[in-house]
Structure formats: structure tokens, C-alpha cells
């Protein structure tokens, strides 16, 4: 009887250890601690676990696959550089989220500055508006393709507000526009999306 009881206790301990081993938060905390100590394999595991979500957000913000890939890599380079600031008060993915948004918005601001410099040196008569990509009937069920048709500002506000759940005041601070502009951009984005999805 005592032997059976001992096996039972050992079984409960093994089960408890197994449960801790499969607890995603505990696993993530362990990976973060190892990565903060310089373990590249631990950081690679964090990278693989969060790659899909980071890329999806970058793609929605940028609207281009190649640019989204570059932004995703930039996010993880910055995450590695700033890993020491992660305190574990939230999930690693939650900490990574605003970093991703900031990288995508920084790139958009930088691209806007470059475009305005190029446009100011060109003769306005020779400047042609970029052609809006036409989409087929499959766009009616494909939000990402419909998002591709939006101007960058409207797309960013739509993604931040309707997809990611930020409030207009937060979006205004992140993007450097007025709250009213954020609201106007969202209204414009929704209208353009409806038109794109109705085609």
C-alpha cells in the first residue's frame, strides 16, 4: 500500500511538472530569460512563435509583401536590441505588438518624406499619380487585397483602429496626426473598402 501511495504521489508530481512544462506563459518566460542572457536559440524560438503575427501586421500596415518582410526583420532586430527592457509584466507578443506598430509607422513616415522630396524636385506636370491596383472578384472575400487599394494613411488608421483595436487618441499620438484626422482617415478607409469589396 505504501508503495502504491508513493507511485501515486510521484505520478502527481510528474503530472504537475508536465503541466508546468506545457504552460505556454511559463515556457515563454523561460525563453525570454534565456534570450536576455544571450541565448540565440531561445530568441529564435521566440522569433518563430511570433513571426506570423508580426508579419501579418506589417503586411496590413505596408500593403506590400517585400516591404512587410523587411519590416518584420527590422522588428525582430529591434526586439533583440531592446530585450533587456522587457520585464515580463505581459506576454512577449504583447510587448512586441507596439514595437511592430512603431517600426511600420516609422517606415511610412520615412517613405512619405522621401516621396515629398522626390516630388518637390520633379515638374508637377510630368508627375503621374500611381495607378491603383485593380482587383478581381476574389477581393470581395479578401480583406488584405482590399486593403492594398487604400492610401497608406487610411490603411494605417483602419488597421490600427478596426483590426488592432486602438482608440483614435492613441492612433493620433502614434502617427502624429490630429484625432480628427484619424477619424476622417478611418471614415475614408471604410468607404474605400466598401467600394473595393463591392466590385
Mean of all residue-level pLDDT scores = 77
Number of strands: 0
β-strand percent reads: under 5%
Structural class: mainly alpha
Helix fraction by DSSP (H/I, runs of at least 4)? over 70%
Outline the low-pLDDT stretches: 1-20, 118-141
Rough shape? elongated
Q: What is the CA-based Rg, rounded?
A: 23 Å
Q: Sketch the major β-sheet.
A: none
Quote the distance from N terminus to C terminus: 75 Å
Order of helices and strands: HHHHHHHHH
What does this structure look like?
By secondary structure, this protein is mainly alpha-helical. Helices cover 76% and strands 0% of the residues. It is built from nine helices and no strands. The chain has helices at 2-22, 24-36, 40-62, 65-82, 92-121, 143-148, 152-163, 168-175, 179-198. The longest helix has 30 residues, at 92-121. The chain starts with a helix and ends with a helix.
Secondary structure blueprint with pairings:
Elements: H1 2-22, H2 24-36, H3 40-62, H4 65-82, H5 92-121, H6 143-148, H7 152-163, H8 168-175, H9 179-198
Helix pairs in contact: 2-3, 3-4, 3-5, 3-7, 4-5, 7-9, 8-9
What key attributes describe this structure?
199 residues, mainly alpha, single chain, 9 helices
Short description:
The chain has helices at residues 2-22, 24-36, 40-62, 65-82, 92-121, 143-148, 152-163, 168-175, 179-198. It has 199 residues and is mainly α.
Amino acid at each position: 500500500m505504501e508503495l502504491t501511495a508513493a507511485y501515486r504521489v510521484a505520478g502527481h508530481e510528474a503530472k504537475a511538472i508536465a503541466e508546468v512544462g506545457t504552460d505556454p506563459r511559463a515556457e515563454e518566460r523561460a525563453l525570454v530569460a534565456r534570450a536576455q542572457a544571450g541565448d540565440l536559440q531561445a530568441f529564435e524560438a521566440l522569433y518563430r512563435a511570433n513571426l506570423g503575427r508580426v508579419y501579418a501586421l506589417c503586411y496590413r500596415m505596408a500593403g506590400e509583401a517585400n516591404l512587410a518582410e523587411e519590416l518584420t526583420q527590422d522588428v525582430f532586430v529591434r526586439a533583440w536590441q531592446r530585450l533587456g527592457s522587457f520585464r515580463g509584466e505581459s506576454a512577449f507578443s504583447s510587448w512586441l505588438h507596439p514595437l511592430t506598430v512603431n517600426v511600420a509607422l516609422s517606415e511610412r513616415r520615412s517613405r512619405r518624406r522621401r516621396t515629398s522630396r522626390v516630388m518637390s524636385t520633379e515638374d508637377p506636370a510630368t508627375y503621374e499619380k500611381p495607378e491603383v491596383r485593380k482587383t478581381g472578384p476574389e477581393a470581395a472575400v479578401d480583406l488584405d487585397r482590399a486593403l492594398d487599394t487604400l492610401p497608406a494613411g487610411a490603411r494605417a488608421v483602419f488597421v490600427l483602429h478596426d483590426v488592432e483595436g486602438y482608440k483614435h487618441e492613441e492612433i493620433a499620438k502614434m502617427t502624429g496626426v490630429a484625432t480628427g484626422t484619424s477619424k476622417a482617415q478611418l471614415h475614408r478607409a471604410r468607404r474605400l473598402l466598401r467600394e473595393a469589396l463591392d466590385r
